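Quick illustration for those who missed Monday's session on complexes.
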Amino acid sequence: MSTEVASAKTYPPSSEFSSGAHVDAGRYEEMYAASLADPEGFWAEQAKRIDWIKPFTRVKDVDFSFGNVSIKWFEDGTLNVSANCIDRHLATRGDQTAIIFEPDDPNEPAQHITYKELHAQVCKMANVLKALGVGKGDRVVLYLPMIPEAAYAMLACTRIGAIHSIVFAGFSPDALGARVNGCDAKLVITADHAPRGGRITKLKDNVNQALLNDFDEVKCLVVKRTGDPIAWRNELDFWWHEEAEKVSDDCPPEEMGAEDPLFILYTSGSTGQPKGVVHTTGGYLTYAAMTHEITFDYHDGDIYWCTADVGWVTGHSYIVYGPLANGATTLMFEGVPTYPDASRFWQVCEKHKVNQFYTAPTALRALMGQGNSFVEACDLSSLKVLGTVGEPINPEAWNWYNEVVGQGRCPIVDTWWQTETGGHLMTPLPGAHALKPGAAMKPFFGVKPVVLEPASGEIIEGNGVEGVLCIADSWPGQMRTVWGDHERFMKTYFADYKGYYFTGDGCRRDEDGDYWITGRVDDVINVSGHRMGTAEVESALVAHSKVSEAAVVGYPHAIKGQGIYCYVTLMAGEEPSDELRQELRTWVRQEIGPIASPDLIQWAPGLPKTRSGKIMRRILRKIAENDYATLGDTSTLADPSVVDDLIENRMNKG
Ligand code: WTA
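Prediction with WTA bound:
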């Protein structure tokens, strides 16, 4: 396959930066080669980052062959994650701030929680969980704002060996209920309300609605965030602050096997409903800790801020587990980039003297549109490394980040990874690589990317090539299974390209051998950095009584990266109208959450289908993108004339 030439301008690290970095160019080459030559030796050494209760004797036991997929790392070792993230730091950094909490309202004081305080709070919460009947292996759903209690709850689960499943607080009661049911949770931890961007989400009301009817045995632990009134379920609901009074602030950590599940996190795929990605204990923590330190070039004493939400994998690995395993100071921000105004991110950087700042391209695009004055008003001299995650970053946003935010002196790490991968798989390292705007550049240690011909699955060797991205061997942070459905795990990731982990992304390896992610090759779309299955939005739409059929695709959106474009066929007798469009939007928000809200709805009297009834999404994608020149062959359609109608009535003209 041919490909365009890589962008000419590159941004090498300064020699001062490289010489002080954990990994410079020479060290990267040396370590990368060692990690592939002897993965067992390499990872045995890296696993020393973690304190083991019982050391492992086996490093890696992996089978990628379809039908037998099995992934195990450090299998016979034992450890406890909360002890690694807290207890082992107490002697050396008990009084150091572990978590800085910056509330939504800038007038509310920030909190600095030391490792000692974190220990006491996590132990208390662990004891409360036990008192509520939660034990090793039980599932606990967290539905919380970005408050310190979210980190306490995660770590409290790990302390007693319970498995957490965090549901992003922007999900609807229906989506929450499905996830409580999906993992058979014993307890939900939530807050009364979640302030965000000056608005309030009624979390406890949502939980009540989610648990209504079906789950009258599921208990709920409630953090008081605003104190505004909420509806209470007697005997099932408990205030965190009241229960905390009744228990000790010491709780011995449970000894866990390296392969015991640590958490479940639901994520979207190209088919069906979201699946519960399972991460386990030893490998995940080793990988999260190592990538956090190396990718961001984190040094002792640095203040690190990742703006993600703990409801996504980025928050798991790079707000809580990676940073705390490294004894870092990690900032948790409850708010949004534009509240009270578009300088909030930069004010927080100035206020807390942030050294590493990690965010999503969609936030940068939104802020870039507000003008430079919001950035320039703040002192950003503390910044050393900038990062992005979640979606491809366009060169304009990259340049703005580099020049206006980083003032040309902060390397930008464009980290490519997935919920499934646990941590970064490809990223430039800030002291090692000459950056190219928009490139994920190089594999992390131990990661063996391969580019395959999409149809044949043949490996494409050499540089200047493009294809689907697979990974040839396991790394410790890899997901182990889909909760309750190992078959689905194998089918999703190991069936299409035998012997490889299939990422779902396309990629280009440029003339220099550097990697560029070209986006999903399946029916997953990426809206404001939030990953979504088009099938989920479709099933929400067809659940509406007036809708007979729906097809959903992504289309380019200046701020969100991709927007949600819906083709909707109405039931016979229903009339299209703007009111109905609004009704369907509201409906999808209720079914899934505001993040799934359709941007454009086109009425489609018919959808392009093959004679066997399969919807031709390729054509729908092209129409949504305003790109008709390459519609391809439409002669195999059952009724080719529907395409003309769809083009005639497309939504985003111009
Ligand atoms: C996309 C988020 C380009 C990609 C950590 C991937 C990216 C999906 C990047 C995973 C990046 C993530 N450049 N695309 N730096 N990072 N993606 O599971 O399509 O929410 O497959 O994990 O986001 O999204 P997820």
